[in-house]
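Person: Please comment on this record:
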Amino acid sequence: MLISGGTGKFAQKIIEKNNTFIISSPARSEMDVFNYDQVINTIDRYRPDIFLHAAALTRPMAKHDHDPSESIRSNIIGTSNVTLACMTRGVKLVYISTDYVYPGVDGDYTEDSPLLPFNKYGWSKMGGECAVHLYDNSLILRVCMNNKPFPHPKALIDVKKSLIFDDEAAEIVLKLVDETGVINVGGVSRSIYEFAKEHNSRIEKISLKEIRDVVLARDTSMSIDKMLRLLND
């Protein structure tokens, strides 16, 4: 397995939880996904069976509003380069996407629900999905995860998500890499506060109206029925 974003937190969680694959996780200085030649040359060097595309511009979320050109380079062009390289070499592609591609209005979104991102980060990840959808030997994982431990002193009481911690997400991703298509990866639907309080009783409350610097949606919770069925098969 070859992982992009190999020095990032989630890639390191994948490596930590892995007991199946020989994993190569080059740093950005060796494989910048914005550089197609670097991507294809790295694939030729390591000859992976699976390319796990975890490299992305995510946080700070406000950066996507202030510098959308970087979102385009990293999340859209970068993912297109990875997809083209995997197509050229016949390598299975697993793309780490996000629940932010959903509208965030009604929640309980299935893999077949219409997509309508509510902020620029979501649009950049959906742009990546567009490329991956053109390659049949691919898997899109719409992952809803947070760093462990929960990194904020306050959590939103009026925003629902299907959050799990990144270490659990890594374990699930490793179990699903042989699948194709689209799979939602997350936990039960609840407020971010409920999720955080389960692990930190001292977490404080905050409401959506108090958030000024980023655009958030009230309910991006996902149906995880497909994920659970596949994990239990």
Remarks:
- DSSP finds eight helices and eleven strands in the chain.
- The radius of gyration is 17 Å.
